[in-house]
Amino acid sequence: MAAVAALVAALGVVAAVVSAQTASGTVYLSFDDGPSRYTPRILAILDQYGVHATFFELGEHVAADPGLTRQVYAQGDSVQNHTWSHPDLRHVTAGVFATQVRSTDAVIRAQTGYTPLCLRPPYEAVDAGVYARAESLGKQIRLWTVDPQDWARPGTSAIEHRVLGKVKPGSIILLHDGGGNRSQTVAALPDILSTLQARGYAFATMWC
Ligand SMILES: [Zn+2]
């Protein structure tokens, strides 16, 4: 019977390893609408868990507090373009589109030395025209696949459950470090990170 018990135990170990391998994969954590006064708290949590993320920043917020953008970039996170003032890009002229993108490039470049190659249109508002204009400016559009609607402040546990219930290998998770009170997002982040790491996920950044 001892041999049987040992075999069962060994099979259990094998099953656990296979299960971990099945669940493992890469996810992309992204933060929109910053930088803001919540950004340093998010950076501290990311640093604590050894995780890097992609920050889609608004040019007007970078201009208001450029040191925050330097801090994000210096920590090894990716800083990308979310327009200057968050318009619906389907409904602006070609000139406004270009100004929204290029002015944001300029303030990010001034802090990082890097010109963003990814563009995340506000409100997930894209059509063929938005894709064509983005391409003409050398940008690739990057949206998301997991949206817990944290901006609506549904509660810390709701944010956690919505992320953890939908995430799978390759997921791009949308959270917000700016645009309002982000204390629920900050509070949800440690459990999200520790749970995803326990599931075997690695975190990658987007540079396009
Ligand atoms: Zn946004």
Automatic annotation (TrEMBL):
It comes from the Bacteria. PANTHER family: CHITIN DEACETYLASE 1-RELATED (PTHR10587:SF133), GLYCOSYL TRANSFERASE-RELATED (PTHR10587). This is NodB homology domain-containing protein. Residues 1-20 form the signal peptide. Residues 25-204 form the NodB homology domain. Pfam families: Polysacc_deac_1 (PF01522). Keywords: Hydrolase, Metal-binding, Signal.
